């Protein structure tokens, strides 16, 4: 059955889900929700996602929102299809889960307000909070030190294999690398640079970039 | 084997893990990390949790951090012991996961800065950001409307049974209900009030409150 994904291909949170589907050969259909026209805040979409965000999915009777929960469900249900995004043992899955939490609580927690201020506010003619950006850059630098250390002894965040732990970072990383002047924070760190070059060379990522047509 | 939990029994994030263990009769030992003395930022603790936060756990060879990842691991590994915190099918577990994400991304995202300003800053003699608090209260009110609606047709956030979806909220809810003047936002909402009364009456929660000795 083709999974319906309500969202925008260019938007970061839906991309977590789409990338999971591309890695695992799961068929999907994107039902476009126009974020510029605030379609996500309208009553029809609120029935799918009551907080007025994207993505939301419909798969037969199953309706879900929250991209990390969606990705984990499909990674588990289709563990034997396409890329194994979880790990074979419960302990390996826990390490993957830990780094997905890290992505949410440390990486995205800083990258998102950075990107909102540097990329999105100028687009809408809103003033950038310059003091906040400087504060966030300092925080981001410290967070990336932890990643650099982790990737010094591990090929991927979860260990030896590419998993959800890496995948979940990719939409946010793309914003940082391609749309801000902060890419130097990554390229100047040997292991982080190696990691980003490797995971962004994956066929599923390239396919997503094609679909997004930036 | 007794699981070592590094943290403080009074702190919200470790409580997610301790509550999971109490619900599931998993033996644990709390190794106190003195947050007032910033022990979590010192090199010894940074080896366990590189971002300088609590909790972290040690269980034989397994070392993990991030409370939601830790709770999910133990809920999965010991699914048949004590309270089933996950759900029986993959689809039920996905709904539980979705509401754990909601707890992190919508509930705690607003409750935490509220509690920081209303409870912690006064304690450390720092000025409370009054404008921010007013902004957060408005957001929190809207978030609680979604919960009220969900709990109108579901006894618990995940459905018919108490799960990680509810458990994950409890440390943050305790702050709101017991240490701020915002408890009215909950008690004025019939279903939310019913839900909180029911889950905070659970023996495991009462045991945690005993151990925390507020």
TrEMBL record, chain A:
- Coarsely, its chief localization is cytoplasm
Protein's UniProt keywords contain Transferase: yes
Q: Which GO terms describe its biological process?
A: glutathione metabolic process; toxin catabolic process
Output the superkingdom of the source species. Answer: Eukaryota
EC number from the UniProt entry: 2.5.1.18
Family note: Belongs to the GST superfamily. Phi family.
InterPro entries to which the protein is assigned, alphabetical: Glutathione-S-Trfase_C-like (IPR010987), Glutathione_S-Trfase (IPR040079), Glutathione_S-Trfase_N (IPR004045), GST_C (IPR004046), GST_Phi_C (IPR034347)
According to the entry, every stretch annotated as the GST C-terminal domain falls at 89-214
Q: Where is the GST N-terminal domain?
A: 1-82
Output this protein's name: glutathione transferase
Organism of derivation: Arabidopsis thaliana x Arabidopsis arenosa
An MF annotation (GO) of this entry: glutathione binding
Catalyzed reactions:
RX + glutathione = an S-substituted glutathione + a halide anion + H(+)
User: Mind naming one GO cellular-component term on file for this protein?
Assistant: cytosol
Q: Give the enzyme's main class according to its UniProt record, as a single word.
A: transferase
Alphabetized, the UniProt keywords read:
Cytoplasm, Detoxification, Transferase
Localization recorded for this chain is: Cytoplasm, Cytosol
Q: Signal sequence span per UniProt? A: none
From TrEMBL, chain B:
Q: Which reaction does it catalyse?
A: RX + glutathione = an S-substituted glutathione + a halide anion + H(+)
List localization entries.
Cytoplasm, Cytosol
Could you tell me the keywords of this UniProt record? Cytoplasm, Detoxification, Transferase
**Cellular component terms (Gene Ontology):** cytosol
Q: Which GO terms describe its biological process?
A: glutathione metabolic process; toxin catabolic process
Under the heading Gene3D superfamilies, the entry gives: 1.20.1050.10, Glutaredoxin
- GST C-terminal domain: residues covered: 89-214
List, for all copies, the residue spans of the domain called GST N-terminal.
Answer: 1-82
GO molecular function terms here? glutathione binding; glutathione transferase activity
> Any idea what this protein is called?
glutathione transferase
Query: Which organism is the protein's source?
Result: Arabidopsis thaliana x Arabidopsis arenosa
């Amino acid at each position: 059955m083709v999974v319906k994904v309500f969202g925008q291909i260019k938007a970061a949170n839906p991309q977590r889900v789409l990338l999971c589907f591309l890695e695992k050969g799961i068929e999907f259909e994107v039902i476009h929700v126009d974020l510029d026209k605030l379609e996500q805040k309208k009553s029809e979409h609120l029935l799918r996602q009551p907080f007025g965000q994207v993505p939301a999915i419909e798969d037969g009777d199953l309706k879900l929102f929250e991209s990390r929960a969606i990705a984990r469900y499909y990674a588990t249900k289709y563990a034997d299809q396409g890329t194994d995004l979880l790990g074979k043992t419960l302990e390996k899955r826990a390490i993957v889960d830990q780094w997905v939490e890290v992505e949410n609580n440390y990486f995205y927690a800083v990258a998102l307000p950075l990107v909102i201020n540097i990329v999105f506010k100028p687009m809408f003619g809103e003033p950038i909070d310059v003091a906040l950006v400087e504060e966030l850059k300092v925080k981001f630098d410290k967070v990336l030190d932890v990643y650099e250390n982790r990737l010094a002894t591990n090929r991927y965040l979860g260990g030896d294999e590419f998993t959800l732990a890496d995948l979940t970072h990719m939409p946010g990383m793309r914003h940082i690398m391609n749309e801000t002047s902060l890419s130097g924070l990554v390229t100047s760190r040997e292991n982080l640079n190696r990691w980003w070059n490797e995971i962004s060379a994956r066929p599923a990522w390239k396919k997503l970039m094609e679909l997004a047509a930036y």
